[in-house]
Amino acid sequence: MNGYGDPLEILHRVFGHTGFRGEQETVVQHAVGGGSGLILMPTGGGKSLCFQIPALCRPGLGVVVSPLIALMEDQVAALRQQDVPAAALHSELPPDEARAVWRDLNNGTLKLLYVSPERLTAEGTLARLDEMEIALFAIDEAHCVSQWGHHFRPEYRALPILAQRFPRVPRLALTATADPRTVQDIQRQLGLEDCPVFRSSFDRPNIMISAQPREQERAQLRRFIKGAADGTGAGLIYCGTRRKAEQTADWLRQDGLDGLVFHAGMDPLAKREAHKRFAGGDPVVMAATIAFGMGIDRPDVRFVAHTDLPKSPESWYQEIGRAGRDGLPAQALLLYGAGDIALARHRIQESGASDEQKRVERQRLEAMVGIAEASTCRRQILLRCFGEEAPEPCGACDICLTPPKLFDGTVAAQKLLSAVLRTGRRFGLGHVVDVLQGKTTEKVAQFGHDQLPTFGVGRDLPEAAWRGVARQLVAQGALDVAVENHGELVPTDAARPILKGEQSVMLREELVTVPARGSLRTRGNIEAPSDPRFAALREWRKRTALAQGVPAYVIFQDRTLAEIATEQPETLESLSTIPGVGNTKLERYGQDVLRVLREFA
Ligand code: ADP
Ligand code: ZN
């Protein structure tokens, strides 16, 4: 093809994959032919191959712009495992290593160079690249160029220079953010207006998605982890604050799990250590803020939970997209409360952003609330946020699996709203529910609320149900929570027609079952896979990865090890037929793997 290397042959020989996935083949052909373009693929969709293979097929150096050092280093480590001459150039590189990279660049022995945007756009680097043959530029995480994106990086603003200075070199921009505004911004900034956009389906059918109102956070998380962990893969719990991330990691450890923590407030050494432990291949659970983000390539993340409402469907999807990159089943759980919704609305209102920006953020937040409060297939609603229309309910979300019952909640809503009004809009939900349920608490007595006509009118519903009614009214905009003060409930203008009986309210029956008691005290609760060959191969991989200082999965992925354990090949030739075993890895590790297997013979 085109007189260059053959993409399919490289896919087999270098990467050990059996075939291209989805849009990969089209993109690769386009890029090998010298075309530029924008590639929209969900996280885990396989973006890397879209530029790595064309870079290997075309003459010259492939230059990859990447926003994160950890991300660069992991990709370079993985490429080197496959004998692809790759290197990373960034500000944290020790001087002798930077010199070595420059030497290889000057010798023309490098095939792929990962570089931070500020390094790339430094005049010294540009001048050097001017003199070289460049196979292509790949701009990874291209949404960082957009101010509308949730990861704006000012350094990315210098990238338009690539189109001006290297007009003949193909540019590939890659991102998992498909929001139309961000897409337009990327096209404009990187000079891709006239180039094709390759859009993959954003669906990740192997991730089962679910959302629940937060009732008993720890118990809900425990139940989720029990159902989702497989004893070998990792888990991620995203928390709204640094403090909560730390607390969560603590109780995970108390529960006997290997709990880790990551947030932006930690010192660089601790952060690096946490990253390393996560990449190491052990069955760890990471409690983190969204600062733990890009650069997580571990393929066997089995679950992602959120303890707080994310600010947009884009960020949520990117975060849960870190689950199940290996294509095996994975689970996502979102926990949220009425307070989250109100607080997020409030933050946008009070932020110093322009009105336009506020409007956009508010829209995104409301879309997220819509997903959380869904009463039809959650995945369909989610995909609609990315402009994708799924014809059928997915069958793999909590709503599809256990459809919620809707009921006419007008009377319940009226009772709650009038209890709020009668108590003078000065109380939080706890007290309002006590009044509804006719509980004579100290506070109720103190304020004489047992004399109100609404006292006890809500005995028909349990406490959790009332919290559900309140949360849904908040989500529907009829009720506000004064997050500034003490969380008192305040009816909005939208409450008036409900109270007057001019408008009815459909509510979901709450499905929250009282979660399992007890803890995950022993690791034995989460079953480790029983195949001793698989376990032995993982042990071998762990030692090998440690010795080389690389993440475990760049040696072999779990999926490959599992297949090897099942197939039990006895020769290098039969080992080479297993997906994930390319030529280089066969040469490097083939004998070791066979030896591990022979110990069981
Ligand atoms: P992204 O950058 O889009 O999040 P990656 O490029 O990291 O995704 O790929 C995600 C996972 O899918 C990786 O583990 C990769 O090895 C695997 N993968 C990508 N393309 C293929 C393919 N054609 N066949 C098999 N596995 C693939
Ligand atoms: Zn569904």
TrEMBL record:
Pfam families: DEAD, Helicase_C, HRDC, RecQ_Zn_bind, RQC
PROSITE patterns: HELICASE_ATP_BIND_1, HELICASE_CTER, HRDC
Domain Helicase ATP-binding: 28-196
Protein name per the record: DNA helicase RecQ
SUPFAM superfamilies hit by this protein: HRDC-like, P-loop containing nucleoside triphosphate hydrolases, Winged helix' DNA-binding domain
Residues annotated as signal peptide: none
Limits of the Helicase C-terminal domain: 220-368
Gene3D superfamilies: HRDC domain, P-loop containing nucleotide triphosphate hydrolases, Winged helix-like DNA-binding domain superfamily/Winged helix DNA-binding domain
Organism: Teichococcus aerophilus
Gene name of this polypeptide: recQ
InterPro entries: DEAD/DEAH_box_helicase_dom, DNA_helicase_ATP-dep_RecQ, DNA_helicase_ATP-dep_RecQ_bac, Helicase_ATP-bd, Helicase_C-like, HRDC-like_sf, HRDC_dom, HRDC_dom_sf
E.C. no: 5.6.2.4
